[in-house]
Amino acid sequence: PFEEKPVVDWGWRDSDAEVVKEKVISDHPEVIKAPTPVQIPRVSILSVEVSGARLSACNGVFRFDGLHQQKPLFKADSGAIIYFNRFWKINGVFKTSSWMYSNPSKSSLPPEGEWTLEGSLEITAGSAPTVKLVDEPFRSLGPQGVSLRLQGGRTVLKREENKSWRWIDVPIYAENEAAEDGIESLEALCARLEREEAEDNAELNFGLFATSTDESATSS
């Protein structure tokens, strides 16, 4: 005959998982205490990176070279420019009366992403360029007249904000922030103290050895 066997209680409940999780966290707090970066404002000097254009002169890094129509004009080493006149344009030479590529945006800075092949005279052959803004962040050391002083001895003009430079938030860990301020991190301080203690012990041991050697020589 069929014999019904008793249900075995293995002693595990879903609620037990929470107890184990809490115990692991309490026993190993370092597992969950990952450093959290803090968003710190930085002055970012802007450049524009262009790639993918069939006209090679229009590819490369463009740097701020002044204003045109109250908006920034960026120039590459090849002589190509990015400028604004009713909309954003790229030309392979330093000439603001024609262009090879364009973007209909009226934004304060060259728009990122793929631009169009629409030139001043006709559709430019080949592939359209892709534009990317590149940030180079610096720590601001405060105003100096019409300028802002930056870490490393650089300066930017206040009136060129959102033209040649802009404010951005940069994730900074406490250790890196302390290093920028010239303050040792806790790990660096402990390492330095241990190193100095080892050096002091070495000098003390050497002094004791020298004294014992002198005493032995005198007695003999």
Q: How many strands appear in the DSSP assignment?
A: 12
Amino-to-carboxy terminus distance = 103 Å
Mean pLDDT over the residues: 82
Summarize the main sheet: 9 strands, antiparallel
Which class of secondary structure composition applies to the elements? alpha+beta
Contiguous runs where pLDDT drops below 50 for at least 5 residues: none
| Rg value | 33 Å
Which percent bin holds the helix content?
Answer: 25-40%
Order of helices and strands: HEEEEEEEEEEEEHH
Strand content: 25-35%
Overall morphology: elongated
Our count of helices gives: 3
Layout: helices, strands, pairs:
Layout (H helix, E strand, L loop, with lengths): L13 H14 L10 E14 L8 E9 L2 E6 L4 E4 L3 E4 L9 E3 L9 E2 L15 E9 L1 E5 L2 E4 L4 E3 L7 E8 L1 H7 L5 H34 L1
Antiparallel strand pairs: 1-2, 1-8, 1-12, 2-3, 3-4, 4-5, 5-6, 7-8, 9-10, 10-11
Describe the structure in your own words.
By secondary structure, the chain is of the alpha+beta class. The chain has three helices and twelve strands. It has helices spanning 14-27, 174-180, 186-219; strands at 38-51, 60-68, 71-76, 81-84, 88-91, 101-103, 113-114, 130-138, 140-144, 147-150, 155-157, 165-172.
